[in-house]
């Protein structure tokens, strides 16, 4: 039988104070009256590394060569959310209806922001305990479960790999969506000028230069193209908004409440569009003042408010303007013969083409740098052989994106599947799990512990339900679309 002292160590701190009312240790009762029994007990059961970490602030130990300002970080967050996802929001509103879409996007935006706060707070606390400047997302996942409830600690050794798997799958899905987006927009323009070609043919045309783009080994050479792509994207959005707001839309023939069976497609698309969990910790760690990232009026909240408003506006008015004719990307819904519309499609295709090279770096880094390269070095291959294998891996990854895209050519379903399968986990379930495990023994009161359980369990459950239902609906629709092709 376990002793009362050993069992106390496994009880969350927020619940131990409740037991002390009935059975207070004698040495605590005899202590200084100015210190509450609960506070004294809380100090007694804290783990040694937590006490040692009290004087350590990770933010003060971060060494960044070129730190970013608050405005720089705010801009990075804003531009990071302007991509294929936001262009798909009008169709997402078609799935949900304009009322459900409006309310749902606001709620999803709030929950996604809350999940980021959970991850950032947990990462800071875990870094503080371990006296390190920062932890990556996968490292934070492992560290949290190491500190969490004893019955779950065996999962810690799998957590980093699990997070990396979902992050890589998300990046893969995004790259597939980019190829489909570029091919679809180029096809839409050229079909009005020459003999139409199939979408798969256009994907082949796009994939060949993409392979060459992904042969660039140093990302600094892509930086000028990335800057140009961002400028083009912002300019294109101005033209898109012109088409969205150029006439007053009629709502009589629009659906306020969509078919409930299509809601998972809306949820997946919104998650794909709004979620950028993988870049949150790196962005915070690159800041000159990382403490300004979180908080009620921090950079994160100041960025997410206009982002969510922009998504709602484009989704709502894009759907009201084009109705049921709205396509997977709003660029495909613009007038076919309008020269400005054609230029927008071409410019956005170029921007997403360049973005593929940057997005694919995460896949390459995981597959080659962290997995295959160490094995090649262990086998003592010559540098020339290693370089050859590296280029083969770079080519194979792009060909893999092309193959899956050529099989599942429906852009909207690919986006919703990636959002439901990947981002519900890395954007909701994992951050809430990490937050709960991190603060499991750190809640100062029963009320705060109960709130931790309610809040984190709710977000975890939402993410898991979205994973199961959203993936099922998306895969079912993909199969139907494939069979009808």
From TrEMBL:
Domain of life of the native organism: Eukaryota
Descriptive protein name: Proton-coupled amino acid transporter-like protein
Molecular function in Gene Ontology: L-amino acid transmembrane transporter activity
One GO location term (cellular component): vacuolar membrane
Thylakoid is among the record's keywords: no
Main subcellular location: membrane
Localization, UniProt: Membrane
Membrane-spanning parts: 95-120, 161-181, 193-213, 225-245, 265-283, 303-323, 343-364, 385-408, 414-437, 449-475
Cell membrane among keywords: no
Organism: Frankliniella fusca
Chain residue ranges for the region called Disordered: 1-42
Keywords: Membrane, Transmembrane, Transmembrane helix
Chain ranges of the Amino acid transporter transmembrane domain: 66-475
Membrane topology per record: Multi-pass membrane protein
């Amino acid at each position: 039988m376990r002793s009362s002292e050993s069992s106390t160590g496994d009880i969350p701190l927020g619940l131990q104070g409740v037991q002390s009312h009935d059975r207070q240790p004698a040495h605590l009762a005899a202590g200084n009256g100015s210190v509450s029994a609960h506070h004294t007990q809380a100090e007694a059961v804290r783990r040694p590394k937590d006490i040692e970490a009290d004087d350590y602030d990770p933010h003060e130990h971060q060494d960044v060569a070129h730190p970013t300002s608050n405005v720089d970080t705010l801009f990075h967050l804003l531009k990071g959310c302007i991509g294929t996802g936001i262009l798909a929001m009008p169709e997402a509103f078609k799935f949900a209806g304009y009322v459900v879409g409006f309310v749902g996007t606001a709620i999803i935006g709030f929950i996604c922001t809350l999940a980021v706060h959970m991850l950032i707070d947990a990462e800071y606390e875990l870094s503080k305990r371990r006296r390190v400047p920062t932890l990556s997302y996968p490292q934070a996942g492992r560290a949290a479960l190491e500190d969490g409830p004893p019955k779950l600690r065996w999962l810690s050794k799998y957590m980093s790999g699990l997070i990396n798997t979902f992050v890589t799958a998300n990046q893969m899905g995004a790259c597939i969506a980019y190829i489909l987006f570029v091919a679809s927009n180029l096809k839409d323009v050229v079909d009005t000028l020459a003999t139409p070609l199939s979408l798969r043919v256009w994907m082949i045309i796009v994939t060949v230069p993409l392979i060459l783009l992904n042969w660039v080994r140093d990302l600094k050479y892509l930086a000028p193209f990335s800057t140009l792509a961002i400028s083009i994207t912002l300019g294109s959005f101005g033209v898109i908004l012109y088409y969205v707001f150029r006439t007053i839309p009629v709502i009589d023939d629009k659906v306020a409440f969509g078919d409930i069976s299509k809601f998972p497609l809306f949820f997946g698309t919104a998650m794909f569009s709004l979620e950028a969990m993988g870049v949150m910790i790196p962005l915070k760690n690159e800041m000159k003042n990382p403490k300004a990232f979180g908080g009620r009026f921090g950079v994160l909240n100041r960025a997410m408010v206009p982002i969510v408003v922009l998504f709602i506006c484009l989704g709502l008015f894009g759907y009201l303007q084009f109705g049921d004719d709205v396509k997977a990307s709003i660029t495909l819904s613009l007038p076919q013969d309008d020269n400005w519309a054609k230029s927008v499609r071409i410019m956005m295709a170029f921007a997403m083409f360049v973005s593929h090279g940057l997005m694919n770096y995460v896949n390459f880094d995981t597959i080659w740098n962290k997995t295959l390269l160490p094995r090649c070095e262990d086998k003592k291959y010559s540098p020339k052989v290693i370089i050859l294998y590296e280029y083969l891996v770079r080519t194979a990854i792009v060909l893999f994106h092309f193959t899956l895209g050529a099989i599942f050519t429906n852009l909207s379903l690919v986006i919703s599947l990636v959002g439901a399968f990947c981002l519900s986990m890395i954007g909701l379930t994992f951050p809430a799990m990490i937050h709960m495990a991190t603060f499991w023994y750190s809640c100062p009161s029963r009320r705060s512990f109960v709130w931790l359980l309610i809040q984190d369990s709710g977000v975890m459950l939402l993410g898991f339900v979205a994973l199961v239902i959203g993936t099922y609906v998306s895969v079912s629709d993909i199969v139907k679309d494939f069979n009808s092709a």
